[in-house]
User: Fold this.
Amino acid sequence: MGAFVISKRFDDQYKFVFTSRKGKVIFTSLRYELKFECEEGVEYFKNNIDLATFYKFKSAGGKYFFKLFLDGAPFAISRKYTTELRVQKGIDEIIKYASVSEMLDFSDNDLIFID
Assistant:
């Protein structure tokens, strides 16, 4: 099962990533100004996975990725993959595990390692 991991960006906005069962990032969300909006985005996605649309692309450098749209609006962008098959495996993992994945919040961990 994967996980949704919420974190704070350097510009003080929030984002979440969906990670695979092995801990690799599959996609990164758009930015959210407030943390509760980010949490609501995760919950909305989990409850409405059937409304998700995946568009596959190939970058100029030859890498593959997908953009995730929810209700027709941009929602997230995937990491880069080496093959189209790996892109599809990432999409399949989202469809299979996203609705039952847990949400982890690391947005308040400013100092993980203290000197």
Observations:
- The chain has two helices and seven strands.
- The helical segments are 35-47, 84-97.
- The chain has one domain: 3-105.
